[in-house]
Amino acid sequence: QVQLVEFGGGLVQPGGSLRLSCTASTTVFKSLDMSWFRQAPGKERMLVGRITNINNTWTFDEEGRFDISRDNNKKTVYLDMKNLKPEDTAVYYCNARTPRMENSWGQGIQVTVSS
After folding, report:
1. How far apart are CA 3 and CA 106, in angstroms?
2. For 11, 41, 46, 95, which has the most beta carbons within 10 A of its beta carbon?
3. Are the C-beta atoms of residues 12 and 110 closer than 8 Å to each other?
4. pLDDT (tens digit, 9 = 90+) per residue, 56-100?
5. Cα–Cα distance between 29 and 42 in angstroms, integer?
6. How many CB atoms lie within 10 A of CB 100?
7. Are the beta carbons of 49 and 66 closer than 8 angstroms?
8. Which 8-state DSSP code applies to residue 13?
9. According to the 3-state scheme, what is the secondary structure of 19-68?
10. Which candidate, 42, 94, 90, 84, places its Cα nearest to that of 61?
């Protein structure tokens, strides 16, 4: 089990930007696929972005407002979000997946987009 801690959530105005960080307590961070999910009230958890252990990336947003990156030396994955909209309001979760497809989750962090 990988311990994951998220940082950086909070309240931001529409159109604003925010960076989420997730730091892992593990000696095998380089081998992990890292993802961000989010869950809005009354909705299912959805995949926001993923960065694999060979740095292939994918994000859900076709407008390019979200960017995912990682720093293996810091054992940290980032989610950079810009031009945020009220519908981006959700609890954001960090996920780690081993090559054996074992999943670990962070505790979640609230992001609220509101004026």
Report:
1. 7
2. 95
3. no
4. 999 998 899 999 999 999 999 999 999 999 999 999 999 999 999
5. 32
6. 6
7. yes
8. -
9. EEEEEEECCCHHHCEEEEEEECCCCCCEEEEEECCCCCEEECCCCCCEEE
10. 84
Residue with tokens 């497809």: 101
Q: State phi, psi for 22 to the nearest 5 degrees.
A: -140, 120
CA distance readout (Å), 19 to 60, 92, 114: 16, 11, 16
For residue 76, give every residue at least 6 positions away whose Cβ sits within 8 Å of its Cβ, in sequence order, or none. 21, 22, 23, 24, 70
**Strand pairing partners for 79?**
20, 68
Whose tokens are 């947003």? That residue is 61
